[in-house]
Amino acid sequence: MSTEVAPKKRKLPVLKLAVAGILLLVVAIVLIRGTDVRALGGRGMTLIREAGPWVFFSAMAILPAVGAPMAAFTIPAGQAFGAQLGLGVVIGISLAVIAVNLALGYWVARYALRPVLAGLLKRYGYAVPRVTPENALSIALLVRLTPGPPYVLQAWILGVAELPFRMYMIVSWLAMVPWALGGIILGQGLFNGNFGLALMGLGVLVAAAIGVHWIRRKYSRREN
């Protein structure tokens, strides 16, 4: 049985832009670590704070379902609202909002824009797997843990494939938790110039990457 998701696929431009943007952010902060790091994104952070948590987290719930990088929200979330709400509350809200976004992405892919997204996936060479009761969990894990496809593209693949909603939500949310935690902590550390906290966030991301590699290899062997 084959659960290959993307044979001979072309990379989407949004992936390149997202990765480049994150790398440029990290490199820029590292290069200017001798300056006041908090001033780097001061103006943008002020605008986010002035808009308020309702606007920010509402955008976080909606925009990644149509292509915006989730990292664009998790990285500034702690710095923007940690002082107002507390970092623990920001993390809790973010994880709840991610669940809402996952559900929205599933609805968009399976119902609202299914024909459009199915055509888009085909155009970029992403095969939609055939889901059965026997392979549903393996497909969910392999799609969510496959390096390369952006967050939103993974949701589209699973939605168009009609993966059962409950399994989709559980696997997708659990797969996102360590990345969200790492991103929020990393962003808080980078924007504050607290490189100990930034290192902690980076450690969470590295641990997540190692875990993803191990789980994917385990399920890939099971499918072969």
Could you provide a short overview of the structure?
The chain is an all-alpha fold.
3D structure, described in words:
This protein has 224 residues and is mostly helical. The protein has one domain (13-223). 74% of the residues lie in helices and 0% in strands. It has 10 helices and no strands. The relative contact order is 0.15. Mean pLDDT is 80; it is low at 1-9, 11-15 and 32-37.
Biggest sheet architecture? none
Give the terminus-to-terminus CA distance.
7 Å
Q: Determine the number of helices (DSSP H or I, runs of at least 4 residues).
A: 10
Number of strands: 0
Structural category is mainly alpha
Could you list some keywords that capture this structure?
74% helix, single chain, globular, 0% strand, mainly alpha, 224 residues
How would the blueprint of this fold be written?
Blueprint: H1 13-31, H2 42-51, H3 53-62, H4 71-85, H5 87-112, H6 114-123, H7 136-144, H8 151-160, H9 165-192, H10 195-223
